[in-house]
Structure formats: structure tokens, C-alpha cells
User: What shape does this take?
Amino acid sequence: RNILNSLASSLQSSASSLQKYTVHFRYLHKFIPSDIHSLMSSLKDLKHLRKLDLDLLGLKLDSKSFQELSASFKSLTKLENLSLNFFNCETFSSLEMEALVQNFDSFESSLTSFSLSCDGCRNLDDQTLEKLSGGLKTLIKLSKIHLSFNSCRKIGDSGVENLTSVLSELSSLE
Assistant: This one.
């Protein structure tokens, strides 16, 4: 538990110069939500960040964690590369996706590469992809994208068609 608080503190102290940040948490169930909220909230101080890689495998993230992460996006206007891995995140659903993408417009003039892996997130459905599609529409500089939804059995044809339609509208994709 002290690890996350120390990490959040060190982020705040190095915020003025940090340009790349990678976090790998794998199945660390001992962390309580308030610790994770603190870490997500501390990202907002990294105004010069160009690359963010969050690997949150198997964590039981609550809605507030996704809201804190999204709120931090407002400050990350120089971000060029965003990679998010929510492998086996049982709590990830359309509500969390909506919270996650609500501030994607902060990246509209900077983000060129986006990766989202939600393999094994069993609560994702067509509505989740609709929310994601809405966020992706704002990323006008996006040239590379990687999306993975393996074992998300609730996603059907309409969700994939909606996502495909939005991706075809992004003229900067390679």
C-alpha cells in the first residue's frame, strides 16, 4: 500500500521533467481503491508527458479510478502515445469506458498512437464500443491504433460495425 503512495509522491516531485511513464501492475489485489485513485490523480501533474503506458492487469478498478484517470487526461495535452491494458478487469463496462474517454478531446492535437487492450474484460459490450467510438472521433492526429477485445463475448456485430465506421473516418490513420 505504501508503494502506491510513494509512487504518487515521486510523480508529483518529478512532474516538471518527466516525458515517459510506464506502470505495470499485475494482479495486485491488496491495493485498496483509494490508493489507486491517488496514483491516477497524480498523473495530472505530468504536463510534459509524451508517452503513458499503464498496464493494469487484473486490478479491481472501480468507477472512480476511471474517472480519476480521465480527469488527469485534461492536463496531458502533449501526450503523443497512450497505451492502456485492462486485461481481466472485471469491473470495466460501458460506464467506465464513458468515463475514460470523456476527456480524449484534450489529446486532439497531440495523440498519434493509441493502444487499448481489454482482453478478458467480460462486461464489455456493444455499448462500450459505442462509447469508445465517440472518444476516438476527437483524435484527429491519430495515425496508429491497436485495439484488443479477446474473450469479450458480449461484443457483437453492431459494436464492431460502429467502431469500424468511426475508424474509417479518421483520415490520419496509416
